[in-house]
Write a structure and sequence with these properties.
Elements: E1 6-14, H1 19-34, E2 39-45, E3 53-60, H2 63-70, H3 73-81, E4 86-95, H4 111-137, H5 142-168, H6 170-173, H7 179-191
Length: 192
């Protein structure tokens, strides 16, 4: 059995006035990581409006390949070049599929919530892909048609839509009660 992939998630707040330098530095780090054995991909989630904390995600084949990159001289040099571009980084690592769902304490939501979150990300992307390209691929036999679809959609899902789904559904995945639900309970309680 092969080891589970490992995800390293790093949160970094951009130092005031350093946005352009910070984003160039981030791209340099992603290119650097891609040269290492076991690298599976990386992504950057921009902060919502009014925030300055970026989420950077690196995925490697296993702990050993991640450790080789983490402890490399080239990564240390890259981190040194980033001095002054960000404030107080926070790092969190996770293994396997749970890596997308773990919170800072290492807890994961129930599998049924994970399945719903992935489906909510996958359905609209699959629908859009079929709407745009389904006609073009219709003449292909089943295996090549599915191969093209999965090759096109997997990176989009892994680096964009699943992280977006996790961010948007975060409070629900963590079991937090929404502001609207709390307000509704208060109104119901006071009206009774």
């Amino acid at each position: 059995m092969s080891p589970d992939p490992v995800t390293l998630m790093v949160a970094r707040r951009v130092a005031r006035g350093r946005y352009r330098d910070f984003t160039a530095w981030l791209e340099e780090g992603r290119e650097l990581a891609s040269d290492f054995a076991g690298y599976l991909g990386s992504g950057v989630l921009a902060p919502p409006p009014g925030d300055d904390e970026y989420q950077i995600i690196f995925r490697f084949r296993d702990e050993k390949t991640l450790a080789a990159w983490e402890h490399s001289a080239s990564r240390r040099a890259w981190l040194a070049r980033g001095e002054g571009l960000f404030e107080a980084p926070q790092e969190h690592r996770a293994t396997g599929l749970d890596g997308w769902f773990q919170d800072a304490t290492g807890r994961t939501p129930p599998r049924w919530k994970q399945a719903i979150a992935i489906w909510l990300a996958f359905f609209p992307v699959s629908l859009m892909f079929q709407w745009l390209f389904g006609g073009l691929l219709a003449g292909l036999p089943l295996v090549p048609r599915v191969l093209v679809g999965t090759l096109a959609l997997t990176p989009v899902m892994v680096f964009l839509f699943i992280p977006l789904s996790m961010r948007l559904l975060g409070p629900w995945l963590r079991g937090e009660t929404s502001v609207l639900a709390r307000l509704g309970r208060r109104l119901h309680h006071h009206g009774a």
